[in-house]
Design goal:
The structure is a single chain. With 387 residues, the chain is α/β, with parallel strands linked by helices. It contains 12 helices and 13 strands. The structure holds zinc ion. The site of zinc ion has 7 residues, from helix 3.
């Protein structure tokens, strides 16, 4: 009896060992990541990703990211509503804590526009603290909610002047190394209201703030660009080149707007982002790099008609010319209820640590996915109670 028990136990142990060391389907195994790259398609829910493949490639499942091996569904609600904005959406991805709409990487003890909540440490701050290099790129204002939630803490996403200034007074490390986005006019106006401006900030922190990517000197390893509009493709490849020199690894976050208020513009942005992702993937080593594609919230777009060989967006030009700005857009094959929606968004992942992306989970899980990919533990959990 004793002997057979021993045999069975050793067989079980052997099986456990074999399972724990087995490689994953994409061959990356459970290797630690040196680098993490997050592609945030703002407002790109599952239905938008599907529509982008139909629009850009004339067939479903043709986007590059749709070939990635790991998929999960991420639930993005804030603590008090069903529907998320970009502030709560990106804050929960970056800090592991759900908060309130409008609030930038502070706990739900914040009152929007009135009272600061507990600042929640972001993945970017963890990376800075550990000596990694970091980059944030956005097609939108570099101080708007999504990029802001990576490097700033504020009780209202509207405070873009204050948010931008925080990039120069980091709480960990030396702050974002490569910071490039749009929003020059708006941020400039808010800085002026606060009695400062780009030039003064640049002087005070000894860091030039450029108006375009072309202005950046080749020797500048930590460029800041606040443009009127940014070539995200070029900016991201530049950022990647600079960050890949890092001896300790890097974090790169790229936001590209995919709101489909204007359905063609939104879908084209997503197709362009997907091409950029393919290009980035060809330049990194997946054995040591985690790539994640996700959204901060979903959007009310549905494909409810159309067929193969015919343009998805029939009727778009007429709609555009009419200049109507109704809440619900009815094209032949596509209907857009022009608002954020509450259902889960997809997370697609490949590379080191990507196997942790699976099943349904709260949006906060991505924080754990990134930290665990690096092999880091979060600080003592702070979970400020809601008011
Ligand atoms: Zn958003």
């Amino acid at each position: 009896m004793k002997h057979s028990l021993f045999v069975r136990t050793s067989a079980a142990l052997f099986l456990m060992l074999a399972l724990s060391t087995s490689a994953y389907a994409d061959g990356t195994g459970d290797r630690r990541a040196r680098n993490v790259i997050v592609f945030l398609a703002d407002a790109a829910g599952v239905s938008t990703v599907h529509a982008a493949s139909l629009y850009g490639h004339g067939e479903p499942l043709r986007l590059h990211v749709q070939q990635w091996p790991h998929l999960g569904l991420s639930e993005m609600s804030p603590v008090d509503n069903w529907k998320s904005d970009s502030a709560n959406g990106m804050s929960q991805i970056m800090t592991g804590v759900k908060t309130r709409n409008g609030v930038i990487s502070q706990g739900p003890d914040a009152v929007r526009g009135e009272k600061d909540g507990t600042p929640m440490k972001t993945v970017l701050e963890y990376a800075e603290e550990r000596g990694l290099r970091t980059g944030v790129i956005s097609s939108q204002s570099i101080a708007d909610a999504t990029p802001a939630a990576t490097y700033a803490h504020a009780n209202d996403r509207g405070k873009q002047g204050e948010i931008f200034m925080q990039a120069f007074t980091p709480r960990h490390g030396d702050g974002v190394d490569v910071l490039m986005g749009a929003g020059r006019e708006r941020i400039g106006a808010l800085l002026a209201e606060a009695g400062t401006g780009f030039e003064e900030l640049a002087r005070r922190h000894r860091r030039p703030i450029h108006a375009s990517l072309e202005e950046v000197d080749a020797s500048n390893a930590r460029p800041v660009v606040v443009a009127d509009s940014l070539d995200v493709h070029a900016a991201t490849l530049r950022a990647l080149e600079l960050l890949q020199d890092s001896p300790e690894g890097y974090l790169l976050v790229v936001e590209w707007d995919a709101h489909t208020d204007d359905v063609r513009k939104g879908l084209q942005n997503l197709v362009d982002l997907d091409r950029l992702i393919a290009e980035v993937e060809s330049r990194v080593d997946l054995d040591e790099t985690l790539l994640v594609f996700t959204a901060d919230h979903s959007f009310g777009l549905q494909v409810d008609g159309g067929k193969r060989g015919e343009p998805l967006l029939a009727g778009y030009d007429e709609w555009k010319q009419a200049g109507v700005r109704e809440d619900v857009v009815r094209l032949e094959n596509v209907m857009v209820n022009r608002t954020h929606t509450a259902e889960e968004v997809m997370v697609l992942a490949t590379g080191a640590g990507a196997q942790r992306v699976r099943g349904y989970f709260p949006g906060t899980h991505l924080f754990d996915v990134m930290l665990e990919a690096w092999g880091w533990s979060p600080d003592t959990p702070v979970n400020p109670a809601a008011n």
